[in-house]
Write a structure and sequence with these properties.
It is a single chain. This protein is an alpha/beta fold. Helix content is 34%, strand content 21%. The strands form five sheets. Strands 2-1-3-4-5-6 form a six-stranded parallel beta sheet, with helices on both faces. Strands 15-16-17-19-18 form a five-stranded mixed β-barrel. The C terminus is likely disordered.
């Protein structure tokens, strides 16, 4: 049985795409393995949001060059966003790469792998018969494909798997000046509600209790394809339909854009109990000047108002965010506005990034590029603010009893179990493997800025009584 290995870089969308590829290969009789050293097919699903992500994938593939010489039968491939952005230029410095597949072609990967495996066998036969040197070949497919958004629709589930990602759309039309996603993922394209709900029902039937709906701008789902009904956006219509799925306990969605929170969505957040009390709400900057340069289409004041509306709609909702420091033209006063807003809002957590220029994006050519040392100073300073806020948020839960969906052994301590609260906080506790895949009430006894620690008190069979 041939074996394959996939390493995924980047976001949940990439993780979901990798699961689709894995499903298609397993359906062809391939076995998934945990290390490239065991594999006959090695695939890197790449990210291009920041330069560091590019360099990690390029470095990894470079290191695999020696393995390619020692095991010439192995197929090596790049998938995803970096593959889409760079195309066949990746072959210039990495001649052992056999496959380059872009973001609209994941459903073609299994076909291409089989073709490459067959050609590698032909080369092996040529070597055995002492013929000429190996024939060099590669497959590159980064073309657009109509309907590709509907091809990410199947995945392999582990025993007792409690959570799953569901891709509802691809692409982005927002064109933030720092972002390469419109180039790598294309224009917005949405699956139908019927397709999505069918996938969710199948997941729930196999024991999945929580789904996360994925899209580049997830709360703008279907805005160009489907009509509003009863003054409800397509996204709210989707949430209501998914909410009706028997056996499903929790619904999350990521990542939204602040402009997509209209009254109908705020109202849905207030009334649909399966929607988890957590919102990842990218801020990017607290300076209106910088937000305008980023083409973010909202102000700091509007963002602050949205946070207040979300907290009013859902008691105890946790809000996390993304922030970029060192964007071109960001003065010290702009950074201080961001810092003050972060202090005011008191996020439950935040991802803080130093601005990274991406090729062919408007921001890469803007005047006022910031020195790396200044970016690092601002990044370090803001992380201190965020970490303190996260610590306080977690410590407020000491003594509370919270609902945790147990996902399995803790990654840092396999002798304990780990899961997430409805507010998306990691909880660590002791218990038997019978709890994996179950909703458990946990009494929180201590907390850090990153995790909660407690003791399970009972299993839950209904939705949480309190948000935590």
């Amino acid at each position: 049985m041939p074996k394959f290995f996939i390493k995924t870089y980047g976001c949940q969308m990439n993780e979901r795409d990798s699961e689709q590829v894995a499903h298609s290969l397993i359906a062809r009789g391939y076995e998934r393995v945990a290390s490239e050293t065991e594999a006959d097919v090695v695939l890197l699903n790449t990210c291009s949001v920041r330069d560091l992500a590019d360099q990690k994938a390029l470095g990894k593939m470079g290191m695999l060059g020696r393995m390619a010489k020692e095991r010439p039968h192995v197929v090596f491939g790049f998938l995803g966003c970096m593959a889409q952005a760079r195309g066949d230029s990746l072959l210039h410095n990495l001649p052992h790469v056999d496959l380059i597949v872009g973001t609209q072609k994941f459903h073609r990967v299994a076909d291409y792998v089989e073709e490459l495996v067959a050609r590698k066998k032909e080369n092996a036969e040529r070597r055995r018969q002492s013929r000429m040197n190996d024939l060099r070949f590669s497959i590159v497919d980064v073309a657009e494909e109509v309907g590709s958004q509907s091809t990410i629709c199947a995945q392999e589930l582990a025993p007792k798997q409690a959570t799953a990602f569901v891709s509802i759309m691809q692409g982005c039309n927002m064109h933030c000046t720092f972002c390469i996603v419109p180039q790598t993922r294309g224009a917005e394209r949405s699956r139908t509600i019927a397709e999505i709900v069918r996938e969710v029902r199948e997941l729930a039937a196999h024991g999945v209790k929580e789904v996360t709906l994925l899209g580049q701008i997830v709360n703008l789902y279907g805005r160009h394809e489907f009509p509003r009904i009863d003054n409800k956006s397509p996204f709210v219509q989707l949430l209501e339909t998914v909410h009706a799925t028997d056996g499903l306990e929790r619904i999350r969605f990521t990542s939204p854009h602040p402009i997509g929170f209209r009254d109908d969505l705020i109202e849905a957040i207030a009334r649909l109990p399966k929607l988890a009390e957590h919102m990842h709400l990218p801020l990017q900057s607290g300076s209106n000047k910088v937000l305008k340069a980023m083409h973010r289409t909202y102000t700091a004041e509007k963002y602050l108002d949205l946070v207040a509306r979300l907290r009013h709609a859902r008691d105890g909702i946790a809000i996390t965010t993304d922030i970029i420091v060192g964007f071109p033209g960001e003065r010290e006063s702009d950074y201080q506005q961001t810092r003050a807003l972060v202090e005011q809002i008191q996020f439950d957590n935040a991802f803080v990034f130093r601005y990274s220029p991406r090729r062919d994006t408007p921001a890469a050519n803007m005047a006022g590029q910031i020195d790396e040392c200044v970016k690092e100073e601002r990044n370090h300073d803001l992380l201190g603010v965020v970490n303190e806020s996260a610590r306080r948020a977690n410590e407020r839960l000491i003594g509370a009893q919270v609902e945790v969906l147990c996902e399995g052994p803790s990654k840092t301590n396999p002798s304990r179990l780990s899961g997430r609260t409805r507010t998306n906080k990691i909880a660590i506790f002791e218990g038997s493997n019978e709890l994996v895949g179950e909703l458990v009430e946990v009494q929180i006894e201590r907390a850090s800025g990153f995790s909660l620690y407690g003791t399970p008190t009972a299993r839950r069979t209904a939705h949480a009584a309190i948000a935590a």
